[in-house]
């Protein structure tokens, strides 16, 4: 039988689907809750959400989905879904509060890893998904090279504790988001507005990635990759000004984070930054070979020229439907294919097999439900983007796996609980989990791909 279509769309190619692994993803701060338990200390996201006006609905991440206490339930949802892997993140401040290993925090992840393995699911932790310890931000955060060295100490602790069972790892999640949204324009933690002066944080995060790769290799890891948020950049018009704006946006959003990892060099960023704080040996460390390259993809980005210290602005993509985030989150699946093909042509053999490490969409949904939610828009989005991955496979791009964001509705950073990405609805007042129609659709797709 062909893979079930989504609302009349043509069926997906099962032969190509069989070439993919399937995963679902979450992040610690967004789902765990238990902020004051087991010795956990504060992160920059605790500081951000506790600052009035930072989070759209005034909410906090605690208890949220409360996965810390409902881990068995969540692993059962993953097992029923049929995924090969589970991408979750480790909380730096739970593992290493105040710079010292925390046996209670490590025990939580120890239990999670064992439950996943018992369920036949490969644990694939992300070492850093934005929860920088507040004590390190007070010393400069990712602007300070020493933060990468402190990260290496954290990775050693994690690898010692989990490396006997965990062989698949992601290092840093979306360094571009931390740099541009966290340090440049202040939309995310730590909420700083340094504009182009934020760019050194990119180098220090990539340096942390390099340290992590070296440490994990020493602990027997067999599958390591970084995860970058990437986008296909579209000029708003064919004017020279818009073309130049799009070129610059591609540099700072895509190439600044991919080129050092894959090619061992930064693109030319002059005149916007005079020099990055690169020391001898840094680029060799950053570009040490990885086994996969993680791509988080949600939408293309249309860019126009702008006046002022930042010479570009993101504008709506004409004619494209949008997700619950509005006009700057257009739904254009073919742009994912275009990005992957462009990456293959740009990087050639330097590009390892790609993993789609996040892909998903939020749409307006109620806080409480009485039964499975018919999230037809999400099914259409997922179907379209999985189809786009298959088109990239046809074009010769090596893609190993597809990961849906997210398993659960969760705390969506500065948007709080106003955006829901989950295959599973979560009532944030009670923690009750209710699989949506998209959960059943994705499960059927995996079953058909494996048959």
From TrEMBL:
Positions with a binding annotation for substrate? 30, 129, 173, 298, 405, 412-413
Could you name the domain of life of the organism this protein comes from? Bacteria
UniProt keywords, alphabetically: Carbohydrate metabolism, Cellulose degradation, Glycosidase, Hydrolase, Polysaccharide degradation
**What general EC class does the enzyme of this chain belong to?**
hydrolase
- Which terms in the GO cellular component ontology are assigned? cytosol
What are the BP-aspect GO terms?
Answer: cellulose catabolic process
Q: Which reaction does it catalyse?
A: Hydrolysis of terminal, non-reducing beta-D-glucosyl residues with release of beta-D-glucose
Asked if the record carries the keyword Nucleus, the reply is: no
Q: Where is the active site?
A: 174, 358
For this chain, one GO molecular function annotation is: beta-glucosidase activity
The protein's matches in InterPro entries, at most eight in alphabetical order, are given as: GH (IPR017853), Glyco_hydro_1 (IPR001360), Glyco_hydro_1_beta-glucosidase (IPR017736)
The EC number on file is 3.2.1.21
Q: Which family does it belong to?
A: Belongs to the glycosyl hydrolase 1 family.
Matching entries from NCBIfam families are given as: BGL (TIGR03356)
Indicate what this protein is called per its UniProt record.
Answer: Beta-glucosidase
